[in-house]
Amino acid sequence: PAARKGCSGSGRCNQSIRKSEAKVVDMIDIENIAEKAAFCRCWKTKNWPYCDGSHGEHNKQTGDNVGPVVLQRKK
Ligand code: FES
């Protein structure tokens, strides 16, 4: 099969976040989420695992359309 070239073209999405770990996993207690929380899915945030808006510049530069997943309490 053809090699997949995602994210930066290298095939690696994660360029800088906790690279010493074999796999980046984050556990967040639901009780600790206030009204809502936005979690990064573009791997460009400076505030992992939260979205800091960096996806906007990434999308502009690459033509991508990634954005966060937002968890929100039912009203
Ligand atoms: Fe990564 Fe917003 S900064 S999804």
Quaternary structure of the protein: single chain
Order of helices and strands: EHE
Structural class from helices and strands? Answer: little secondary structure
Q: Ions, cofactors, ligands: which are bound?
A: FE2/S2 (inorganic) cluster
From the N-terminal CA to the C-terminal CA, the straight-line distance is: 47 Å
Which descriptor suits the 3D outline?
globular
* CA radius of gyration: 14 Å
Q: Strands of the biggest beta sheet: in what spatial order? A: 1-2
Key terms for this structure?
single chain, 75 residues, little secondary structure, two-stranded antiparallel ribbon, 1 helix, binds FE2/S2 (inorganic) cluster
How would you describe the overall organization of this protein?
With 75 residues, the chain is mostly loops. 12% of the residues lie in helices and 11% in strands. It contains one helix and two strands; from the N terminus they run E-H-E. The protein has one helix spanning 54-62, and strands at 36-39, 69-72. The protein has a two-stranded antiparallel ribbon with strand order 1-2. It is globular, with a radius of gyration of 14 Å. The model has no long low-confidence stretch (mean pLDDT 90). The structure holds FE2/S2 (inorganic) cluster (FES). FE2/S2 (inorganic) cluster binds next to helix 1.
